[in-house]
Recover the amino acids of this structure.
């Protein structure tokens, strides 16, 4: 069958409508002010924003907006390859890392083939799979909210073509040692692509790079990373895939159809963001500091908070459908767990107005524990 079935079109359009509605308040110009009254803790962005080097290059390129982008994105790809100690043939840049994931699913899975990932994963894994006419296979997390590698492996069969694992995982922030993912990958047939989504790689306390060293040696592994998180450039839409040259060629074959999807300013800003060591250090410092404050706050409120290797935390708020309203009343936007299939949890990222954020969260947590809604 060559068209998306009506029920899939309906599901994707429903998701679109709900998603657009949930971010409606971000569409007004007022959102782009540092004193916006709602603290936005929903999207795991870098609350410090882009670094100075990226901002400078953005300003410089404004007056050249009439020029088409440099189609090879060579400066950015070469800089990435140099830092990864790989060749340019091992890197593809895309309009956000979710595009790399979609293109990989398109290249590896036929209609009717299966794509396996953990339940609770970002919705793009499901959306990419459905848009490709393939079949999503969500696997529940373990009781400790970790990826169930045994469960994921058990769902791999002759129809499986892609497995996607985020590490650290969004929404839990939990990190799997890369040796475990290497062992998981070793058990996969070569016609199954393992995508390890490393959107929060730079925030990890330790970069193991076991998988990075493996990519050129195996035909079926891709890592994805992004400029949307620590680099503070989510609005510019730049991500990248890292893989063996043949995997990259397969992805680029699809990419060509909507090239150039990355704006010139985005590509230059991304390249300069890589050079901005000071901004990266400050972002890590700020994140560590606020995360520790969040651990203390949740502990003193008597709420369970998972240890996170990313720039957000998952907190057990008992019932996110009931307690969502308390966050809103206190001027906080966040991601309720019912959105990702675990309704007792909340995913909370951080704001640069740290004291105000902690005070509002403290009040919200006390109200949750006191059971007072309304
Ligand atoms: C695990 C994970 N992957 C990918 C993304 C999106 O990345 P990008 O903006 O590069 O498309 C997110 C954003 O929240 C994420 O949490």
């Amino acid at each position: 069958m060559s068209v998306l079935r009506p029920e899939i079109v309906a599901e994707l359009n429903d998701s679109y409508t709900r998603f657009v509605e949930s971010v409606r308040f971000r569409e007004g110009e007022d959102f782009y002010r540092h004193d916006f009254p709602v603290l936005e803790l929903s999207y795991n962005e870098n609350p410090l924003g882009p670094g100075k080097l990226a901002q400078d290059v953005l300003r410089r390129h404004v007056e050249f907006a009439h020029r088409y982008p440099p189609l090879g994105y060579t400066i950015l790809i070469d800089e990435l390859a140099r830092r990864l100690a790989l060749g340019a043939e091992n890197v593809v840049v895309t309009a956000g890392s979710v595009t790399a994931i979609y293109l990989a699913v398109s290249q590896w899975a036929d209609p009717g083939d299966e794509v396996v990932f953990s339940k609770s994963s970002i919705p793009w894994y499901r959306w990419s799979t459905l848009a490709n006419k393939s079949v999503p296979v969500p696997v529940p997390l373990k009781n400790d909210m970790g990826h169930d590698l045994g469960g994921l492996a058990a769902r791999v069969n002759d129809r499986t073509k892609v497995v996607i694992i985020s590490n650290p995982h969004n929404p839990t922030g939990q990190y799997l040692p890369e040796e475990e993912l290497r062992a998981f990958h070793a058990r996969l047939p070569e016609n199954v692509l393992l995508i390890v989504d490393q959107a929060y790689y730079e925030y990890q306390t330790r970069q193991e790079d076991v998988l990075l060293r493996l990519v050129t040696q195996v035909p079926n592994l891709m890592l994805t990373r992004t400029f949307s998180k620590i680099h503070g450039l989510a609005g510019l839409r730049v991500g990248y895939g890292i893989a063996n040259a043949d995997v990259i060629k397969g992805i680029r074959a699809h990419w060509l159809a909507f090239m150039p999807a990355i704006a010139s300013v985005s590509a230059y800003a991304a390249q300069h963001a890589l050079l901005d060591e000071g901004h990266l250090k400050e972002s890590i410092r700020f994140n560590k500091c606020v995360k520790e404050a969040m651990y203390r706050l949740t502990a003193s409120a008597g709420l369970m908070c998972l240890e996170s290797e990313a720039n957000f935390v998952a907190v057990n708020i008992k019932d996110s459908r009931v307690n969502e309203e308390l966050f809103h009343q206190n001027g906080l936007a966040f991601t309720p767990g019912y959105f990702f299939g675990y309704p007792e949890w909340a995913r909370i990222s951080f704001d640069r107005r740290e004291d105000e954020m902690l005070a509002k969260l403290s009040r919200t947590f006390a109200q949750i524990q006191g059971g007072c809604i309304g």
User: Anything to note?
Assistant: Residues 44, 96-98, 122, 166, 170, 197, 199, 226, 228, 234, 239 surround pyridoxal-5'-phosphate (CB under 6 Å). Residues 39 and 249 are 42 Å apart (CA to CA).
